[in-house]
Design brief:
This is DUF3025 domain-containing protein. Pfam families: DUF3025. It contains 11 helices and 6 strands. The N and C termini lie far apart (41 Å). It is globular and about 55 Å long. The longest helix has 20 residues. 41% of the residues lie in helices and 11% in strands. α3 crosses α5, α4 packs across α5 and α4 crosses α10. The chain is an alpha/beta fold. The chain has a 4-stranded mixed β-sheet with strand order 4-3-5-6, with helices on both faces. Strands 1-2 form a two-stranded parallel sheet. It has 2 domains: 121 residues, no CATH class; 124 residues, no CATH class.
Length: 276
């Protein structure tokens, strides 16, 4: 797909886009790029309020040229005014808007984190971004949430036992583990998926009954858990675990063969330098 072209059928490219299916009825009708009015319509017709940390409604606005004043910069403007600068006809910014609509609590928590770190850096005249903002940016771009009711599956994922997880425990993964992509950069990559696509994961243990719920209900739960984690437990990129997302059953047409999981350039073994 040409990265500049609008494709109203993008939701059918990959199961990765499942969190946006609730928005699909509207998006599939659009024969040209959604504009800011379309994004506002989607935002205003979602079940969850889309607001920033202080409760101001999120509003998608045109991008401006680079700003020198802190209050006019990207993250502070969201925190102070609720305004998310969004480029027209741009998949990256389009997916960022959809993530705001789908995970509003978590996005607001990330924005608050960014703003507080930027404010402290400004006050102390620090030029370099710290480890917390590095982690927040990485998750914002490439984050994936993993939920599972099976401790064994979680242990296999955390231990990088990819073939045992995705192939030998395939049936259990399909019933007791689910991936929710969060990073808007990862969604953009999913338009043209390639071997090597890797998310930065946060893992939650959930009750088995969670998997009986429809996706919109699961999204609300994931959003709330993620908000708490980002606000209280994210400190550095080491809090995020690599997740080769195309290993999930059905997320690549090639992973129906067990040999797919033998590629150690993608399904990398546990690093020897890290103690389990």
């Amino acid at each position: 797909m040409n990265e500049q072209d609008w494709n109203p059928g993008f939701l059918e490219i990959s199961p990765i886009f499942e969190p946006f299916h609730v928005l699909g009825r509207y998006l599939r009708k659009l024969h040209s790029w959604p504009d800011l009015v379309d994004l506002e319509y989607l935002k205003n017709n979602t079940a969850m309020p889309v607001v920033n940390h202080s409760g101001k409604p999120i509003c998608f606005v045109p991008q401006i040229s680079s700003a020198s004043e802190l209050a006019d910069q990207y993250e502070p403007r969201i925190y102070l005014a609720g305004e998310v600068q969004t480029r027209a006809e741009n998949w990256h910014d389009f997916f960022n808007a959809l993530v705001w609509i789908s995970y509003p609590r978590a996005k607001a928590a990330l924005n608050q984190l960014h703003f507080q770190e930027m404010l402290q850096a400004c006050q102390h005249k620090k030029m370099q971004r710290g480890p917390l903002r590095d982690a927040a940016t990485l998750f914002d771009e490439s984050g994936v949430v993993v939920i599972s009711s099976d401790v064994l599956l979680i242990e296999l994922l955390e231990s990088f036992e990819w073939k045992e997880l995705f192939w030998q425990q395939r049936a259990a993964v399909l019933t007791s583990m689910k991936f929710f992509v969060f990073g808007h950069g990862l969604y953009e990559k999913a338009l043209n998926p390639y071997l090597g696509m890797t998310g930065k994961g946060i893992i939650f243990k959930v009750e088995a009954e969670c998997f009986d719920q429809p996706t919109p209900t699961q999204l609300v739960m994931v959003d709330m858990m993620l908000e708490k984690f980002l606000s209280q437990y994210l400190h550095a990129t080491s809090n995020l675990t690599p997740v080769p997302v195309l290993g999930y059953p059905g997320w690549s047409t090639d992973n129906i063969d067990s040999s797919y999981y033998d590629n150690q350039h993608y399904f990398r073994p546990y690093p020897a330098r890290r103690a389990k």
